[in-house]
Description:
Layout (H helix, E strand, L loop, with lengths): L2 H6 L3 H13 L8 H7 L14 E7 L2 E6 L5 E3 L12 H12 L4 H8 L3 H14 L11 E10 L29 E9 L4 E8 L4 H8 L8 E5 L2 H9 L3 E5 L5 E2 L3 E2 L1 H14 L10 H13 L6 H11 L3 H6 L1 H9 L7
Parallel strand pairs: 4-7, 7-8
Antiparallel strand pairs: 1-2, 2-3, 4-5, 5-6, 9-10
Helix pairs in contact: 3-11, 4-11, 5-6, 6-10, 7-8
Amino acid sequence: MDFKEFVKDLNSSQQLDLLKFLQYEIEVPKFDVLKDSSNSISKVECPNCNNSKVVGHGTYKGRGRYMCKSCKKSFNDYTGTAISGIKKVEKFQSYLKLVLESVSIRKASKSLDLNVKTVLDWRHKIASSLEQINGSKFIGIVECDDKLVNINEKGNKNLNRKPFKRPSDRKTKRGVSDDKISVIVASDRKGNPTMKIAKKGRIDAKSVEKSIGDLMDINNILCSDKHPSIISWAKENEVEHHTFLSKNHSKNKMYHVQNVNSIDNLYERWSKPFYGVSTKFLGQYLNWFMFLQKTKNKTNQVIELAEIIIRNKKAKFKYKEIENLYELLLNPQYSKT
């Protein structure tokens, strides 16, 4: 039997199923993704003070330890990262592959024989590591739009209202209101998108600045609908700005937001199997989705994911900060429109 000819005769869906079977059903030699990734990162810095003047300080559980000459604190390759403190490292590496497939929590829990809460924590820690990939400097024409997402209190055990039996029971105001969270979606024509939480309710110039201000400069050309806050921000920052009526969707066929609308559509389809994303963790899910979009055409996604996790020494801090950021987002003092 010619195996190559057999694979060629399969359609793309069948080839993907075959690949998954080979990866998860057949016993193949395992490799240490995290170890291989950490070896590729030659520069060692202190996660506490970011000082590069460090010395070796023995080993612990097979991992090299270091001592910072500046703050005198010891650390290892994983200190401060999403993997810090995780005991089941082999299963964590297996979960990285499931993250790339956007497998549900319960399915991943069953596949890895782990508690649902453990897998949920791993998901949010990994997603917290991906913040740095959600947004990089734009080049040329930049499309921008705001997306409204209903506030979702999924998983909240201390509701100050009677819980809904189903999502359709929730009555929200039409259009922009404080029942929704505004997300800024932007992308240049080079395939460099970003999705970031702006604020509760209607966006303003400050929330636009917070979301994409660091990613743009006066050399960029911004195009959007006639949202007054985006117009105001562009004028303040002296950015060339082209607008059009929402019903037209474009201006002179060059200035449009079709790429941004496509990203919106892709996100809705990707997040639908999760049966609603909690507002508390919305930022982490946006990071996760942006990583998948930016690496979808790469063959070594799992290695790239592992390298990002090991490089981000602030991921554990970001993970612990989720609760505070959520309370700040919903605080009426910061959500006035």
